[in-house]
Design brief:
two-stranded antiparallel sheet; single chain; mainly alpha; Sodium/glucose cotransporter
């Protein structure tokens, strides 16, 4: 590796400052417009932007909360077309959020997704347990991986021998300032501003990468160009009919990192518009940018793993352009990291601190203290992921420990009445243990298939334990048209 390019670094710094200033201006403008409708020191102001996000900011924030270096680096690092299925199937997950879960969240007036569990099961303990699992996933998986992949990308695209941990620390501290100083409103605005640059630059990378190989895919192994995965591929095609849809349902519909944006609109209709707009972006743009540069890099450089994306960017873009793209990608890392950090703090404050420590805390002060603590933990965990064979597969596999048991708790609450909270809590712990066995002890099938097995087993365990505890589960009646109309006008 060489030294930093002066032009590249200058463009990077200038654009980073410009996006920060644009975010400050827009946040102040939105705050003045909203006026006194939200208390300055309130959960709704810090964690739901005072209910003032319009649909473009919801769509932008949802897109950038998901799309960051762990997607661009991790998926392109597989260097095969097959990984596009993660993004194509995500469209179904967004539709389920907009049409099934979001109306319920608005009808129940939820700040966190776990608040719905408390209301359905009348159990603060269940809410705290699920929040604890979400917190563990964010702290141990999402936050450190975001910092690691962001630092890895910046080092690859710069061509300089930059140390990963200090880079990750800079990203973490910088990103935390948005969550601490501006709450969700600042996060969503920065997401949207950065999103325009990220998506535009990523599409330019696709074009330039395909030009670099002369739009000729000959010589690339057929298994890297197919959408029909074989038994030994990362996504065997039968998994699209089993666990894939439930992975997407969990991620887009119950994961606080995503749903918090959709719940921050002034009305259900506005929130749904934002979710559907994010779905259109996901369908039309994202699949191409997360796989095609990696495939082109395979033809040019051979198998590179998670360094493939940074390498192709450095190879096909002039220094000033790669500096601009690096700035947008750094912004994507910051917004992705900050979005998860903001959601993690929301879960701690609303579900644990206010329930068990202090019912009326100073939200601004608590938000600062908790955020700084979470930042320190995530930076310290970055070295654990250095050298992972495939970040994207590692993330998806680790997700199964929490995702399917938690989704089972939501499904039971939406579909049944009469299930007691202790039954769901025991079933949830059973599901985590079952998937742990599948992951580290006995793996009889692909992990995506085993996610469906874990989901069904967790639901069955909840129903069986509920019967043993003397409860009687019954199917929940669907909401009447009058109630649905009332919810739509909320």
């Amino acid at each position: 590796m060489g030294q930093l390019d002066t032009v590249q670094s200058g463009v990077f710094i200038a654009l980073t400052i410009a996006m920060a200033l644009a975010t400050i201006w827009q946040v102040r403008r939105m705050s003045r417009r909203q006026g006194a409708r939200s208390a300055a020191n309130s959960n709704r102001e810090y964690f739901l932007a005072g209910g003032g996000l319009s649909w473009p900011f919801i769509a932008g924030s949802i897109t950038l909360t998901n799309l960051s270096t762990d997607q661009l680096v991790g998926m392109n690092g597989q260097q095969m077309l097959l990984l596009a299925w993660w993004e194509l199937s995500a469209v179904a997950g967004l539709a389920i959020l907009a049409l099934v879960f979001l109306p319920v969240y608005y009808r129940e007036g939820c700040t966190t997704t776990t608040e719905l569990l408390q209301k359905r099961y009348n159990s603060p303990a269940l809410r705290a347990l699920v929040s604890g699992l979400f917190l563990a996933g964010n702290l141990l998986i999402y936050l450190p991986i975001t910092l690691y992949t962001g630092a890895l990308f910046l080092r690859s695209v710069s061509g300089a021998d930059l140390p990963l941990l200090p880079l990750a620390a800079i990203l973490g501290v910088t990103g935390s300032l948005y969550a601490i100083l501006g709450g969700l409103r600042a996060v969503a605005v920065y997401d949207t501003i950065a999103g325009v640059g990220v998506l535009g630059s990523a599409l330019a990378i696709v074009w330039l990468a395909l030009q670099a190989i002369g739009w000729d895919f000959s010589g690339i192994p057929p298994e890297r160009l197919t959408l029909v995965g074989g038994p030994d591929s990362p996504i065997p095609w039968p998994t699209l009919l089993t666990g894939m849809i439930f992975i997407q349902t969990f991620y887009w519909s119950t994961n606080q990192n995503i749903t918090q944006r959709a719940m921050a609109a002034p009305s259900l209709r506005e929130g749904q518009k934002g979710v559907f707009a994010a779905g259109v972006i996901r369908l039309c743009i994202v699949p191409a940018i997360v796989v095609l540069p990696g495939i082109a890099s395979y033809k040019l450089f051979g198998p590179l793993g998670d360094t493939a994306y940074g390498t192709i960017v450095a190879a096909v873009m002039p220094s000033w352009a790669s500096g601009a793209f690096a700035a947008f990608m750094a912004a994507a890392v910051l917004t992705h990291y900050t979005s998860i950090l903001n959601s993690t703090t929301t879960l701690w404050v609303c579900d644990i601190h206010e329930a068990y420590i202090d019912k009326a805390p100073n939200v601004a002060r608590l938000n600062t203290v908790i955020s700084l603590g979470f930042v320190a933990i995530s930076i310290a965990l970055v070295p654990l992921y250095d050298g992972a064979a495939s970040i994207i597969n590692l993330v998806q596999q680790l997700n199964g420990l929490l995702s399917m048991p938690i989704l089972a708790a939501f499904i039971c609450g939406l579909v049944f009445t009469g299930i007691r909270a202790p039954a769901v809590m025991l079933a949830l712990l059973f599901g985590v243990g079952l998937y742990a066995v599948f992951t580290w002890v006995w793996t009889p099938a692909h992990y995506i298939h085993l996610m469906l097995v874990t989901l069904l087993a967790s639901i069955a365990a909840a129903l069986a334990i509920n019967r043993l505890l003397g409860g009687t589960a019954q199917l929940r009646h669907r909401a009447s048209p009058a109630n649905m109309a009332q919810t739509a006008n909320h």
